[in-house]
Design brief:
This protein is mostly helical and 228 residues long.
Amino acid sequence: MNMAQRLLGHAPSSQEETRWRLLQAGTEVFAELGFKAATTREIARRAEVNLASIHYHFGDKAALYREVFRLPFLNECNTFATLDVEAVPLVEALRALYIWMFPPQAEADPMLQQFMRLHAREEGDPSGVLGDAMVQAFRPNHEKLLALLCRELHLSAADDDLQRLAFSLVGLATVYMHGGRSAVEAFAPQLLKGVPARETMVERLVEHALALIASEKNRRMASQKENT
């Protein structure tokens, strides 16, 4: 219930607590079994609530699944989403982005571990029920990143090359979370083990991102000189 209290700003009521118990149990069961094999009966059993509670709070298993996927994008879980793009230094913004995407404390937080397992499972074996839920959940982050890059490159609006840059910056971290995670664990597991290793990874991601942004800035400046 710690996450519930942070997000709500108060101790959850009995109904709120039931809802959060279902979200936590759903995260565990979906991460372990996948959407298709997971049952509402098992989720209700782990949440220690009656089966009808799922219908009351979410409607059905698919709706619960979509709500579980939305949790990591909530502001309390994602400080990047709350940054003031006009004022925040670039390094600080990038660090917030990568701490959200690659949390150094993930090994000590069971819910974060489950989220990462769940997202990896969904990528490898899509449930078919998310629709555009993930796209809509990530959209504010993508738009904030574009705004940050527009500021740094003095652009009034994002163009195709800025979109390429934004996706590249996100891609730097996703390899450690989703499709490439098994390869990292097989070839260089020390990169993922322990808080110091993960904190170092965040700093390297920031450094790599700064290099990509500088490269794009230099490319644009060179192109402008050629055209004048």
